[in-house]
Amino acid sequence: MTRHIGAVLAIALFSCLSGPAFAQDVELRSLDGSVELEGNLISYDGAFYRLDTVYGPLTVSAEGVSCAGPGCPNLATFVAEARVAGAATVAEGLLPALLEAFASSRGMSMGVEEGPAYVLRRSDGSPAARFAVTPGTTDDGFLSLLNGEADIALALREPSQAEVAASEAASPDDPPLDDRVRVLALDALVPVVSPDNPINALSLPEIARLFSGDVTNWAEVGGPDAPVALHMLAPGLGLSQAFSTRVLLPSEASMSDEVTRHVSAEALAEAVTRDAYAVGITARSAVGPARAVPLMGECGFPLSASTDAVKAEDYPLTAPIYMYLAPRRLPLLVRQFLAFTETEAAEAHVAAAGFVNQLLTRTPLALQGERLGNAIRAAGDEVDLAALQEVVGTLGTAERLSTTLRFNPGGAVLDIQSRASVGRLAAAIERGAFDGRQLIFAGFSDSDGPATVNARLSLRRAGVVRDAVRAAGVADASRVEMVAAGFGEAMPMACDDTDWGRAVNRRVEVWVD
Fold this sequence. Notes:
CATH class of the largest domain: Alpha Beta
Radius of gyration: 26 Å
Low-confidence stretches: 1-23
CATH superfamily of the largest domain: OmpA-like domain
InterPro entries: OmpA-like, PBP_domain, Phosphate_ABC_transporter
Strand content: 25-35%
Number of strands: 25
Organism: Gymnodinialimonas ceratoperidinii
Shape: globular
Distance between the termini: 43 Å
Mean pLDDT: 85
Helix content: 25-40%
Protein name: Substrate-binding domain-containing protein
Pfam families: OmpA (PF00691), PBP_like_2 (PF12849)
Number of helices: 15
Keywords: Membrane, Signal
């Protein structure tokens, strides 16, 4: 909501702003001196003043006014402050590189102070921003955010129901957590063994049985006659919690008491490497000297955590790295840093740090032999040669983008990673990346139910995604043709005999022709 005093002073109403409580008298004047506004300065974020006035709390753009009074901040020396807490893997392994790259892009330098705090300095050496970082666990990040002690929480999992409820109770009038999140990078949960272990693949049910203690000898899962040694990250770490939620819980299993816990992914990888009969669950970005084992479905589909599979969420244990934001308005330079994390320059640093970035990549159908082979093996009475020929006829000359869209269980709401992907795809269209081309939104389903029904469902979901991309800010839809196609269960990515396999198969792919 915006009010106008005269024709010069624009005042926007917001729920709240971050920053120190100045609570000092100030007077804001329009640049031509015709309008004045008095009040107590609540905060200043580098772009807006927040005043307590006789009209109530008001927010005023700094561009159109001058400030007089003892509470006025020095605009030339204002320091943007941000408090970051959460996953140490990100806080220590990725965030500093992104902050340094952001500083360089704005002609600044970065220094480190005790705390740690990363200070971005102007060319004259004066500080422009200070990011105070508290490395810890995902639990720590959410707790700090909910307590108002952090502006940004770094998380390796989505918030629990208890955390969502606590957020709603603390700020019922503010946007929910799911509307205050960005995907910073991508990672994945992978089973790892020693290079000396002969195991070549494991299914998710086998992994659940191993880590619940139901299987104690490798011979029970096709390996040597030797006892299994289990390794897992510490309970408070987000990846450990994600494993319990996504692998053990669906199997109605609980973690074995015989698991050796590790405070870092690096320590886990080293311990597993030293023991030929050990198995661990860790981050794809921290496999180190250990060997990652592909996931194998009961029907024989192998799934590796390749870069493309993680980007497309084809790998079932993809683990996005989230930044959850406080409901208050962050300082301008902090918001500019958040915008920078979505640029191609930032994505290069994401990849250099060992994570999977979200840059769009293209793969022709001709180079997707594994998935074509899987489709042929899975073909049955309801998916005949004609159905596969339709897929090849439509997509044969096109390239698959790494963007793949999936929905939350039981509905037509895109999941968090997919919502971020919609925005990135719309931005690429606006940049002209696909001018004069055709984007095909190809919907696929699992095999649960009649094939004809699944074909209609996949087409409907493809249309939902196409419309979401258009609504995300594509100003000129004529620059690229966008069409929806539904192929039902004709091109499975995983076995349909498990919940996770069916979830992987329910998707909308994006192809460019």
